[in-house]
Amino acid sequence: MTKSKVFSHVFDEETLKNVNKLQGDGYIGNLLGPIGTGKESYVFYSENFKGRVVAVKIHRHNIDTFKAIPSYIRLRGKNTGGFIKKINDWTRFEYNFLSKAFNIGINVPEPIRCYENIIVMEFIGAEGRPAQPAIKDSDFDSNEWYPQIIDYIIKMGRNNLIHGDLSPYNILNYNGKPFIIDFSQGLKLSSLTKSFLVRDIDNINKWFLSLGYKKIKESQEIIRDIDENL
Prior knowledge:
Layout: H1 3-10, H2 13-24, E1 32-37, E2 41-47, E3 53-59, H3 63-67, H4 70-75, H5 83-103, E4 111-115, E5 118-122, E6 125-126, E7 129-130, E8 132-133, H6 142-158, E9 161-162, E10 171-174, E11 177-180, E12 187-188, H7 194-210, H8 219-227
Antiparallel strand pairs: 1-2, 2-3, 3-5, 4-5, 6-7, 8-10, 9-12, 10-11
Helix pairs in contact: 6-7, 6-8, 7-8
C-alpha cells in the first residue's frame, strides 16, 4: 500500500489531532513504517523525546471495520456513544489489558501511553526492525516455549484475562523468547467467555503439535488448573 493510501486509511482529522497531542507531549516523534497492519489498526514505529524507539498502534476510526467485530464488543458489556467514542473506549480497554498482562509478568510490550485511539508501547525489535511473528521465525526451542506460553495463559486466566486471539501470528520471537502482542480482542474471563480461552489453548496446542512437540496439555486440564486457583 502506498504512503498516500496508508494516510487516507488511518489519519482522519481526529486521529491527526491525537497524533499531534502525543508528539507535543514528547511521547512520539515522526511516525515511520507501518510495521504492522490489521483489520482494525496500523502499527508504526517512532522515536520519543528521550531517544527511545517505541511502537505506535492506531485504531482506525472506521465504522465498517468496527462493525466487523461486534461479538467482542458485545461481550465487553455496556459501551455507549458514537462509533468514534466506542473505538476510543476499545483502545483504552486494550491498553488496560496490556498493562495488566505486563504487571503480572507476561512477556508483552511495555505499555507507555494511551490517548484516544492510539497506544504507545515498547518496540519489540532492534534498529527499527520489528521482531517477527513465530509463524515466520520458528528458530526457538519448543521444550522451552510451550511450557512458558501455557504458563502465560494460566497466569492470565488466574487474573481473569483471556487474550482472545492467541496464535503464532500474535507471538513475536525476540532473542529466542516469546512476546505476546495484540490484545485488541482481549476479554475478561467469565462463564460467557470461557470458550475463547479454550480456543486460545487449542490454537497453541495445534501449532506445537504441527511442530512435532508431543508433551501437550489438554485444554480442560489447563482450565481446571486456572479454576482451582481463582
